Amino acid sequence: NLSFVRFPQVMTKFACVVLNHERFVSLVNVIYKVAKKNTQGRRHCIMLDATKTIFHHFKHIIIGIYFGGLVYMFYPIYDYVVNRALTPVSPLIFPFLDDDTIRSFLISTMCNVTAAMVNSFGTVAVSLLFVTFVEAYGSLNALIEDDFRVFDDMWKRGNKNVAQRKAMFRNIMMEIMDAARFNLSINELYSLITTVQIGCCFLSMSTLAFGYLALDYVGGLGACVYFLTELMLFCYIGQLMDNQAERIAMVIFHSDWYLYEVSYQKDLLFALCMVQNLKSINIAGIMPLNFAAGVQVIKNIYSIIMFLLNALE
User: Fold this and answer.
1) Where are the transmembrane segments (predicted)?
2) What single DSSP character describes residue 284?
3) Which end of the chain, N or C, is surrounded by fewer C-beta atoms within 10 Å?
4) Distances (CA, A) of 12 to 6, 27, 205
5) 307 three-class SS
6) What is the DSSP secondary-structure string of 106-134?
7) What is the residue-wise DSSP string for 62-99?
8) What pTM does this model have?
């Protein structure tokens, strides 16, 4: 039953957050310290843009999840209003309830919708935290990019202040190390959550789509759209992370490193080797979480459904 898939999924997410709450809090503290430290000039604008982007993503995540929830409940309402048929919103069956009566049907629907809302709340909460960390990681990269721009200007202007150059370069290297640690922490905290989320969407969508095609379970179409929304939501956040994982390397590539002294170039080469090993979040340690992974999951669902339908013929 799908409810027995959804509930462990949400509990796994909450368990990951609770058991690793110190690490989640430490990432939040890093974000707070960076925002508090950069309160002037261009760097302040970078932090403001990151904040606006985070709230922009918040809005779209909430709209996307609850749009999927409305689609989930749409067909049973439509079927009752138009055809006067009591179509269950979920295959979950409660004992001592006769779904052929309106009273029992409403009780069953309320229980199913309540369970769905709790599950959706868990998905929204974890997704909002996820996208906050990813965008904060992006703002760290933006600050590194800005520092490289200033450092390049020093060499172009022929700045002879060695102490100032060393301090600036040391700050850049520290920022790169902080961004690398931030990347590693996000990967460690969200690898299991992502794997469980994608696995749940895969199993649920396969079951619901097969139920519609083989057993004419029309009520499952709305739930299938909802799980598709969740799948693409996580793939979207993963794509953002995937893009940011390559950003620092591109910043180093495009810097005027050939103007630097040899000692700086050696340190920069070390930093480049390190950031090239940064990874996006992987699903079960196999494939990166991005839109390509979402398309591959949908293709696998289609292949499984076609195989089962051919086996039934």
Assistant:
1) 61-78, 189-211, 217-237
2) T
3) C
4) 10, 20, 19
5) helix
6) HHHHHHHHHHHHHHHHHHHHHHHHHHHHH
7) HHHHHHHHHHHHHHHHHHHHHH-----SSS---TT--T
8) 0.82
Tokens of 5: 């898939």
Burial bucket for residue 310 (CB in 10 Å: 0-12, 13-18, 19+): exposed
Residue 52: CB atoms within 10 Å: 11
Distance CA 11, CA 199 (A): 14
Q: What is the chain's Cα-based Rg?
A: 25
Q: Are 185 and 143 in contact (CB under 8 A)?
A: no
Residue pair 213/309 in contact (Cβ under 8 Å)? The answer is yes
Find out whether 232 and 127 touch, Cβ atoms under 8 Å.
Answer: no
Q: Which residues of 159-184 are buried (b: 16+ CB within 10 A; e: fewer)?
A: eeeeeebeebbeebbebbebbbebbe
| The two three-digit tokens of residue 254, written as one number | 């495009």
Q: Which residue do the tokens 């910043």 mark?
A: 251
**pLDDT of the chain, 313 residues: tens digit per residue:** 455 566 777 788 888 888 888 888 888 888 888 877 776 777 778 778 878 888 888 888 788 777 777 777 777 777 777 777 777 766 566 666 676 777 777 777 777 777 777 777 778 888 888 888 888 888 888 888 888 888 888 888 877 788 888 888 898 888 888 888 888 888 888 888 999 889 988 988 888 888 888 877 776 777 788 888 888 888 988 898 888 877 888 888 888 888 888 888 888 888 888 888 888 888 888 888 999 999 999 999 999 988 888 887 7
The CA–CA distances, whole Å, from 126 to 10, 131, 256, 263, 298 equal 9, 9, 40, 43, 23
